[in-house]
């Protein structure tokens, strides 16, 4: 036993659990409890940094939402969320209630409506790690190792992997430590972990992320997105209010300069904002399934309404032309990064709402329909692999599998994004643009690529944006359908 194990534990004043029948009041209480807890930790940290010798361990707890129902209530059959499946006690820890205010009010309100019971808001038994309590605060910073004469973990709680995992979303049937049933897909520590990772990978804070996410694998799309954003800001009827780039640089004037960071983050991210986060976020994930998984692992905690992949692919049919579009309705998963979380035998279905929005957007932007539209847009299976230079290997294996799957295109990100959308219950879709045809002698060479990029990227991005705007106008129950939810789901979306 170390000396710090014998230290008494100092916590903020306790708060008795309270019942609420008003969602806004419940969220206000969550905000107050969270502010008291994180304020206490920051205050004690500042005192220790200033030289105060700690004689206690310091601990504060996440707030939680709890609901108990004793009846098999008939829930609103139009919704795949907002209700529990059977009588029992359900609970979830909560972090950053300021960031998730609208979401929490919506989800709590549905519970109250569907079960006619109040929710209880109080303190959980899950400690808030100091690192997460300080995340996003510009007034304090954690010192590096060696800068202090004592270890922070001796006097503060640090992240705990036991509560920072994906057991709930992976359907492992876990219960909370007190045997209550999880109310939400992510614990507060899991959410905090991803919020911190998002800021690191994208160089923008989670507050700027919008509910509609576009993923791409080329910088060219970023340039076009900024051009579109500036046009939108110049149009007072567009509804868009600001454009945000890496470093949290915000412009509201279409002519304003967007500063650039001396070093871009791993996944540069840009946000075209709208009230209540109804705008569009573009993430340049680069090339490869690992980045695609990383980005979606963390963005999922924000509970977006949809994410789409709009990038380049290899066309596998000789009848395709460079610049044609591919609308994925199935995925051949050879990316390997999600095999432990979502076995390859799990089907990843196409979502009708997404497919229709993408097809209609292609027709609108290209002004084509019928056979003319079909000439430039193929619907079929997209294969995703983890080997960028697959063409250099013996062709008998890969080509046979591509043929057997009836794949019409190949890339390195789409199936990963779709599979993680399925796993995290986030509506997903894929619209790719053919940039090369390696099986038919049309490789992506510099001269060909430049001409292709000049003519196709702007139109492709415009289609992705229009599809998102169509999805934004859908009722919540249509876009978040039962296709993504099993028979044993958390009540929160």
Explain this structure.
Helix 1 crosses helix 2 (101-115), helix 4 (188-202) crosses helix 6 and helix 7 packs across helix 11 (446-472). With 493 residues, the chain is of the alpha/beta class. Helices cover 33% and strands 20% of the residues. It folds into two domains: 3-193, amp nucleosidase, domain 1; 203-483, Rossmann fold. The protein is built from twelve helices and 18 strands. It is globular, with a radius of gyration of 24 Å. The strands form three sheets. Strands 2-6-4-5-7 form a five-stranded mixed beta sheet. A five-stranded mixed beta barrel has the order 14-17-16-15-18, surrounded by five helices. A two-stranded parallel sheet has the order 1-3.
CATH topology of the largest domain, which one?
Answer: Rossmann fold
Radius of gyration: 24 Å
Indicate the CATH architecture of the largest domain: 3-Layer(aba) Sandwich
Number of structural units classed as domains: 2
What's the CATH H-level homologous superfamily of the largest domain?
A: Nucleoside phosphorylase domain
How much beta, percentage-wise?
15-25%
Q: In total, how many beta strands?
A: 18
Largest sheet: 5 strands, mixed
User: Quick one: CATH class of the largest domain?
Assistant: Alpha Beta
Please mark out the parts with pLDDT under 50 across 5 or more consecutive residues, or reply none: none
Helical content band:
25-40%
Residue-averaged pLDDT: 89
**What spatial form do the alpha-carbon principal axes imply?**
globular
- Termini, distance in Å? 44 Å
Count every helix, treating DSSP H or I runs of 4 or more residues as helices: 12
Placed side by side, the strands forming the largest sheet appear as: 2-6-4-5-7
Structure classification: alpha/beta
Element order, helices and strands? EEHEEEHEHEHEHEEEEHEEEHHEHEHEHH
């Amino acid at each position: 036993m170390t000396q710090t194990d014998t230290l008494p534990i100092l916590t903020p004043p306790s708060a008795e659990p309270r019942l609420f029948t008003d969602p806004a009041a419940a969220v206000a209480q969550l905000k107050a409890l969270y502010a008291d807890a994180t304020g206490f930790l920051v205050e004690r940290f500042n005192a220790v940094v200033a030289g105060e010798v700690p004689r206690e361990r310091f601990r504060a707890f996440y707030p939680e939402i709890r609901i108990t129902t004793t009846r098999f209530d008939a829930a609103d059959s139009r919704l795949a969320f907002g209700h529990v499946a059977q009588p029992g006690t359900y609970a979830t820890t909560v972090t950053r209630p300021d960031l998730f205010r609208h979401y929490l009010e919506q989800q709590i309100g549905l519970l109250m409506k569907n079960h006619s019971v109040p929710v209880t808001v109080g303190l959980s038994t899950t400690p808030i790690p100091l690192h997460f309590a300080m995340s996003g605060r510009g007034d304090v910073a954690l010192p590096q190792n060696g800068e202090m004469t004592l270890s922070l973990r001796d006097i503060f709680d640090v992240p705990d992997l036991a509560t920072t995992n994906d057991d709930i979303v992976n359907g492992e049937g876990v219960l909370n430590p007190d045997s209550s049933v999880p109310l939400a897909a992510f614990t507060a520590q899991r959410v905090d972990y991803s919020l911190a990772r998002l800021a690191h990978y994208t160089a923008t804070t989670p507050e700027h992320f919008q509910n509609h996410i576009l993923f791409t694998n080329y910088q060219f799309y970023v340039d076009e997105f900024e051009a579109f954003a500036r046009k939108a800001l110049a149009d007072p009827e567009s509804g868009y209010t600001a454009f945000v780039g890496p470093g949290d640089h915000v412009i509201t004037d279409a002519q304003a300069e967007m500063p650039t960071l001396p070093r871009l983050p791993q996944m540069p991210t840009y946000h075209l904002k709208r009230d209540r986060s109804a705008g569009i976020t573009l993430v340049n994930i680069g090339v490869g399934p690992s980045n695609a998984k990383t980005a979606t692992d963390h963005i999922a905690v924000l509970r977006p309404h949809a994410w789409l992949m709009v990038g380049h692919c290899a066309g596998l049919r000789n009848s395709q032309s460079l610049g044609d579009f591919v609308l994925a309705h199935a995925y051949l998963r050879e990316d390997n990064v999600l095999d432990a979380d979502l076995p390859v035998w799990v089907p990843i279905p196409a979502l009708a709402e997404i497919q229709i929005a993408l097809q209609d957007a292609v027709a609108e932007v290209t002004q084509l329909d019928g056979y003319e539209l079909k000439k430039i847009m193929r619907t079929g299976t997209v294969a995703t692999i983890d080997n960028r230079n697959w063409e250099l290997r013996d062709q008998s294996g890969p080509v046979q599998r591509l043929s057997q799957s009836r794949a019409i295109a190949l890339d390195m990100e789409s199936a990963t994004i779709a599979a993680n959308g399925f796993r995290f219950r986030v509506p997903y879709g894929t619209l790719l643009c053919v940039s090369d045809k390696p099986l038919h002698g049309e490789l992506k060479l510099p001269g060909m690529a430049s001409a292709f990029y000049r003519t196709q990227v702007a139109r492709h991005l415009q289609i992705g944006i229009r599809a998102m705007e169509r999805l934004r106008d859908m009722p919540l129950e249509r876009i978040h359908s039962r296709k993504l939810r099993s028979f044993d789901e958390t009540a929160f979306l």
